Amino acid sequence: MQTLQIDGVPVFSAPGPRRTTLALVFGVGIQDETYQTRELTHLVEHLVMGSLPKRNIQCNATTTVDSTSFYATGRPEAVREFVEGVCAAVSDLSLHRADAEIGVLQAEDCSSSGGGLVESLWAARYGLTGPGVAFAGGPGPQFLPDEAIRAHAATWFVRGNAALVCHGELPEGLRLPLPDRAAPPHRPAVPRHQVAPAWTRSWTPGVGLQLSATGPWDPALRMGADVLRERVQDLARTERGLSYHADVVTHDVTPDRREVTVVVDAREGQEGAVAEILWTQFQELCRTGPTEAELAHAREGLVEAVDAADEDDLVGSDLMDAAVGAVTGIDLRTVAEGLEACSRATVPEVQAALERVRRTALLQVPEWSDFAGLPGLQRWLLCGLTREPVPGRTLRPPLAKRVLGKAGDRAIVLGDQGIAHRDPDGDVHAIAWSQVENVFPILDDGGVVVVGGNLCMVPVERAVFGQRAVDQVSARLREVVHPQRWSAPRPGTVVPVG
Fold first, then answer.
1. Could you give the percent of the chain with pLDDT greater than 70?
2. CA atoms within 13 A on the CB side of 365
3. Is residue 169 within 8 Å of 20, Cβ to Cβ?
């Protein structure tokens, strides 16, 4: 791998196939959004790609939790034109396709799908900060105003936040004319305080165990996660037929903090049994560590995976990791470096690494599972759920709706400290005024939804509570919530009147 600079942008290059691949990487992703601005980075990516002329080359773009990449493969002069076109597009972002690209995002169902099992565990730990934002669907891209789109592009898609990958011949005369600005600071990812291993529920299928590690990257922890995955797969799939597949997903949140998650699918109705296997095997590995045979098998698995990979794919992976590391500040090692470090991990080191993160263990099962906890696990509520009454003025649905059973025993509570919603089961979702992340209208109802950074939502539907309740809640919110936290639909969005 060679490193150089073009127009102040670091370039990571290596010889490769006849066709050159260029990838322009920016250190901005979902973690740099809020619930209110969810899909903003993805929309900028779409607007840039939509502004480029058609070319007969392979090209695309990707937005992840921490980065956005534009990449193309083809003749050197063709990929040079592509990358230079991207630079021009982000430097002067055109919004003439904004409504069309918002429609494309809606067609992809991006605005409502949110994340899966791993993302829900991130949200359980970080709320609506850092990687936890990836779990949230957001109000939808139709709530993103033009000024927010332009500001996001001007802030993040700049020279100080970019790196380039070149796999193959470096195009002659390549220029990277990006706005000459430094990378802005990232919004901090704030983990919830945890004193002991815990378990939680979420509306996502599968079972997961997330471990939070601080300090330098520890290959022994990764090896421990691989051994745990193998044990769970042997027991849950091979011996008992409860599961099909288990995997390990890692994510570096900051240079000195990362999340390691073991995810396991489960047969319907067997999620609790799979969760018990996952937790008990983790506990056993913390106490005794793996056997020498298990550790040797994990090492062989890593070697086999590397040996089976195409050499060009391995080089391309190393180049991309170097570029992402340059724009995120995270020290990502090459495949060879990672393999060597993992191969040196010993049984005592693996046991110690797992024991160090045992307190951070967060086990998750689906909401519909019959799992009720295990010894050594505290209950961890995904949001600010409580059954305690919240002081304040109570707003109930009109009597007729309650009598006819169309609204149930629901209530909204407006207090000095915040707002709360009581559902028919007596559960209360409370949001302090200081925790209000976003307020947006219910387009087909005329009511509003209040979103808390603690993952609670308070829906105030006009069809349920009536217009008077909606007006009272809106008036109280405007007294205490910063105007920037209010989302309005884009001009031209049709708001149905009930």
1. 96
2. 27
3. yes
